[in-house]
Design a protein that fits this description.
heterodimer; A: alpha/beta; Rossmann fold; five-stranded parallel beta sheet; about 45% helix; B: about 325 residues; alpha/beta; seven-stranded mixed beta sheet; about 40% helix; about 20% strand
Chain lengths: ~290, ~325
């Protein structure tokens, strides 16, 4: 896959304009960008006949804020050693990552048409070896945080200021490997590590709290030695403030309260949209809702 | 008949740790990651010399392998060390997804493999590891037979640039590496020449294969011994030649026979040049209580057991 120079240019212009903008303009810029990604994602999943749109809609404001306002990355040099890392532990929402990476120019938006097609780089779950910008292969849950801990330890060994971000689902936190890694990160004071929990309270088949409850989730992370911040997960400025908050020697957990299916009225908080595929008519209706 | 080893024997973990520590002195990228196994992985010296480069994640193998992968894709060369049964069994999905599929060049060091933990029981035996890991794509598997091969394998693994499983023996073995014969990744070493039967052995079984070859010679059967220190990718050429040039092939490994060395060799021989075979190992049975030497004998993994198989293939069952 090749970098898309035009998209990279517009991403750079976006970042410059964003840096200079006031709060209202910033909020509008990120929200427009995220909704554009939502439209692309729904179209892509409809075309492919598979995907995880509920989780994609849920996580897109988090990914948009990171890639368009926070991460120090270079789409033209995706393996730049001193880049910030973003690990998408909830790998089933690869679609959301792909539309975001394409938006930043890591590859051309036209590649999204190949999603899930034979021999496409864009597998149903992200593959680092095939897709520029993907940092580790996820899909089985509970894998992202341990790998991110290794990346954060490496940054400390290097004496580098680079940061490592992990986005996990909430149901995913039922995997014990997350808590092994959380314990290690707390013990080692990895303040260069930030976990964002996409707390939409739904897992594949039911509500998290009806399956194996996670609450009080903030107390769990705090007990493992983490600084915990709870934010409205679709409020870009709140997310940004959480990402930019001064660190205190502990790793940070941002519990982002989100809505699965966010932005599409008939998908919001509906468990069946975990991996239901929207029809062309539903994509059209959703696109209208997502166009302001 | 008794075939007694006369030579001194060695715990390969010592050579492993010495070589790793020596490499770390000249290569800042080398780090060790372990699961509270500083002592059992023989990393006490490494930890004393490079305290910042020994990352002990505690008793948490899934996390340990993930941390190794994160270090690897950040430019480090992590040697992830743990008792082989827990490294491979507990963290198998991390080995598959985080290391092999993610192309993260981690050196997975399975310490004290096979039945080295003897009377600690089947929970602590790592006899499934070769079957499990040979099923994983893009992962090399190296099983050194003695201290010198262990050293050379460590040196090779540090520069391999891809995921490697390195089996580091604890059960004491004699030196089998002749002077000047180096460990060569992906290549079998021919340690004895013969044209009646070939014995293909790995790890702790290589010295026993050589002992068996010596005893077979006395019985008039000439045995070729291949030290298959790389299980994956297999040295196909050496296997093909063994099938073509000798009348039968015996494989022997301190592992289950379901998918390790014997299964790999059998796959080649059955499809390309069928000759009679005997596959020695452990056949899907949990071990009874006993020390390692007893258990190896229990499962026929001795020079005598190998000799019986050789003579059987050579048509000398009375040997």
């Amino acid at each position: 896959m090749k970098t898309d120079p035009g998209a990279v240019d517009s991403w750079h212009r976006f970042r410059s304009e964003f840096a200079a903008a006031g709060p209202d303009r910033r909020a509008t810029m990120l929200s427009d960008r995220a909704d554009r990604s939502r439209r692309l994602d729904l179209r892509m999943v409809n075309r492919a006949g598979l995907g995880h749109v509920g989780g994609d809609m849920s996580v897109l404001d988090i990914l948009t804020t990171l890639y368009f306002a926070v991460l120090r990355v270079d789409p033209q040099d995706p393996r730049w050693p001193d880049r910030d890392r973003l690990v998408l532990s909830k790998g089933h929402t690869a679609g959301a990552l792909y539309v975001t990476l394409a938006g930043a120019g890591f590859f051309a938006e036209s590649e999204l048409d190949t999603f899930a097609q034979p021999h496409s780089a864009l597998n149903g779950h992200p593959n680092r070896a095939a897709v520029a910008g993907v940092e580790t292969n996820t899909g089985p849950l509970g894998h992202g945080l341990p790998v991110a801990v290794g990346m954060a330890v490496a940054a400390k060994l290097d004496g580098s200021p680079r940061r490592v971000f992990v986005v996990t689902g909430d149901g995913e936190l039922q995997e014990g490997s997350n808590w092994e890694a959380a314990m290690t990160a707390g013990h080692r004071n990895l303040d260069n590590l930030t976990v964002v929990v996409d707390r939409n309270r739904l897992q594949q088949g039911a509500r998290t709290e009806d399956t194996v409850g996670l609450d009080p989730l903030d107390a769990k992370w705090a007990a493992f030695g983490w600084r915990v911040v709870e934010v409205a997960g679709h409020d870009h400025l709140a997310l940004l403030a959480a990402f930019d908050a001064p660190r205190d020697g502990r790793p940070t957990c941002i519990i982002a309260d989100t809505i699965k299916g966010k932005g599409v009225s008939f998908m919001e908080d509906r468990v069946e949209w975990h991996h239901k595929v929207p029809t062309a008519e539903q994509v059209a209706a959703a696109t209208e809702e997502l166009t302001r | 008949m008794t075939i007694a080893p006369a030579a001194p024997t060695f715990d390969c973990r010592v050579a492993f740790a010495e070589e790793l520590t020596a490499l770390a002195r000249t290569d800042e990228r080398i780090v060790a990651v372990c699961n509270d196994s500083v002592g059992s992985s023989n990393l006490v010296g490494f930890a004393a010399e490079f305290p910042d480069r020994l990352i002990n994640v505690g008793i948490a193998e899934q996390n340990m392998v993930g941390v190794g992968a994160g270090l690897a894709t950040s430019g480090y060369v992590p040697f992830v060390c743990a008792a082989a049964p827990f490294l491979t069994g507990r963290a198998l999905e991390q080995i598959k997804a985080d290391v092999a599929y993610s192309q993260a060049p981690v050196v997975l060091c399975g310490m004290s493999p096979g039945m080295a933990y003897g009377e600690l029981g089947a929970t602590h035996h790592s006899i499934e590891d070769l079957s499990w890991l040979r099923a994983v794509a893009d992962l090399d598997i190296v099983v050194p037979a003695d201290p010198e091969q262990t050293r050379q394998a460590v040196r090779w693994a540090a520069g391999a640039g891809r995921g490697v499983y390195l089996r580091v023996g604890r059960f004491k073995v004699p030196s089998v590496t002749p002077p000047g014969v180096a460990f060569e990744f992906g290549r079998a070493a021919r340690l004895a020449d013969g044209d009646d039967v070939t014995v293909i052995a790995a790890g702790s079984m290589v010295s026993r294969a050589l002992d068996a070859a010596g005893a077979a010679a006395a019985a008039g059967v000439s045995v070729r011994v291949l030290d298959m220190s790389t299980i994956a990718p297999l040295d196909l050429d050496a296997v093909r030649r063994a099938a073509r040039e000798t009348r039968g092939v015996v494989t022997v490994e301190e592992a289950t026979t379901t998918g390790g060395l014997g299964a790999a060799v059998a796959g080649v021989i059955a499809q390309e040049h069928p000759v009679p075979m005997r596959i020695l190992g452990i056949d899907r049975r949990f071990a009874p209580t006993g020390d390692t030497a007893f258990l190896l004998e229990h499962f026929g993994l001795t020079a005598e057991g190998i000799l019986d198989a050789v003579l059987g293939l050579a048509g000398r069952d009375d040997g």
